[in-house]
Amino acid sequence: IKTDSLISLLDDNQDNNESNTKDNSLISINLFQIIYSHFQCDRLRLVVPDSISDFALQPIRKNANAVFPKVYTIPRSIGAVFKFQSSKDFSKAAIKDGDFIFVLDRINNAFSITPIQAEVCNKLNGKNIPANIRWVKHPTFTKHLDKNEELNEYLTSQISDSYDFCNSLNTNNIQKDFT
After folding, report:
1. Helix, strand or coil for residue 179?
2. Longest CA–CA separation in the chain, Å
């Protein structure tokens, strides 16, 4: 049994195999036609992983536009932040202006971190936006892991490197520089 997702269709298109590309195009157009016939809507909003570039999304966007008059893509990190904002835990978090939320994601061998920054904007008052917060998405950092490289190993190495760096900045050296 072979299963496909929009992500797997994009991965197959990277192989530069013309047969795969045509098959994937037909599969995605059929998928969008099924969605359109079932829901009868004019707009499609696709939630997409942050680790996939707009350029890589072109085949999917092109096929969606063949069926839907308007197609919008929403980064998954923004969806995650909005879900968090509508949860009970949001008020407990006491998010302030300038705070960051880091959205971690993994698609196949691509691990990504997307920083989303809270910006309190009083101009939004009365526009049905909770806590008058506007979310600012910063560039996504993506690391493509080797087949043999485990996410745990990668994160552990990054934490160790950060820890060593922080330890190298001891306060004695800083005080000597300023005295």
Report:
1. coil
2. 74
Give SS3 for 58: helix
Residue 138, helix vs strand vs coil: coil
Query: What pLDDT digit, counting tens, does each position of 89-120 carry?
Result: 988 888 889 999 999 888 877 888 899 999 98
d(CA 156, CA 174): 28
CA gap 47, 60 in Å, rounded = 12
Distance of alpha carbon 29 from alpha carbon 51, whole angstroms: 23
Residue 17 has pLDDT above 80, yes or no: no
Strands 43-48, 70-75: pairing is parallel
Kindly give the interhelix angle for 18-39 and 6-13, rounded to the nearest 10 degrees: 160
Cβ–Cβ < 8 Å for 106, 116: no
Count other Cβ atoms within 10 Å, centred on residue 103: 20
Calpha distance 21→60 (Å, rounded): 11
Lookup result for tokens 């806590």:
131
- Given this model, what pLDDT does residue 174 score? 37
Distances (CA, A) of 4 to 1, 7, 78, 168: 10, 8, 25, 48
Range among 13-22, 75-84, 102-111 rated most confident: 75-84
Phi, psi for residue 160 in degrees, rounded to 5: -60, -45
